[in-house]
Write a structure and sequence with these properties.
This protein has 182 residues and is of the alpha/beta class. Helix content is 49%, strand content 13%. The chain starts with a helix and ends in an 18-residue tail after the last strand.
């Protein structure tokens, strides 16, 4: 099967979680050797179908700006598989869906817990998993994608909370925001 046909089937599977979609894309780049224009087109097509997938934005941005995306793919897969950091904290631990600067996106139960913690004045530790720290332009697309999927979404400030992350932020690649002509 051609790599782009494979990506189409991945993108059509709307119930796949965001991590699976990112893993599939990284594996495809590493396994098929996608580079250059073919990589950019594949990334844009997949992101068009799954704008809610922060890990996909993160991996795609790293890959399209890389001089050797095939070699980088395995490292990114390892980064995406890294466990969330263990944190000792005297409050509630909340895992974010996406992050950019001092903004984070919380979805569903985590959003409700954060709101409750604020109301009860409980200290909060926000854990940012590897692969979800992205530029603000991508964060807006993730929020739009989550809203389109009917998720309960909130963009929150990290002010007055403890934030734990690995510091690996995606670079900005403007080409990911363009619409593919194909």
């Amino acid at each position: 099967m051609h790599p782009l046909e494979y990506l189409r089937s991945v993108a059509r599977h709307q119930r796949a979680d965001v991590w699976s979609v990112a893993f599939e894309f990284v594996d495809l780049v590493g396994g098929w050797g996608l580079e250059g224009a073919e990589l950019s087109v594949a990334a844009r097509r997949l992101l068009h179908r799954r704008p809610d997938a922060a890990p996909l934005w993160w991996a795609s941005a790293h890959l399209v700006v890389s001089s050797n995306p095939v070699e980088l793919a395995q490292q990114l897969r390892d980064d995406l598989m890294a466990p969330s950091p263990e944190v000792e904290h005297d409050g509630w631990r909340i895992e974010v869906t996406a992050a950019s600067g001092d903004s984070v996106v919380l979805v569903g139960h985590e959003r409700q817990r954060f709101t409750e913690a604020q109301a009860l004045e409980i200290p909060v530790c926000m854990v940012v998993p590897s692969g979800v720290t992205i530029p603000s332009q991508y964060l807006k697309r993730v929020i739009e994608g989550l809203n389109a999927r009917g998720e309960s979404v909130a963009e929150c400030s990290t002010e007055n909370v403890t934030v734990v992350n690995d510091g690996k932020t995606a670079p900005f690649a403007a080409e990911l925001l363009r619409t593919s002509a194909i």
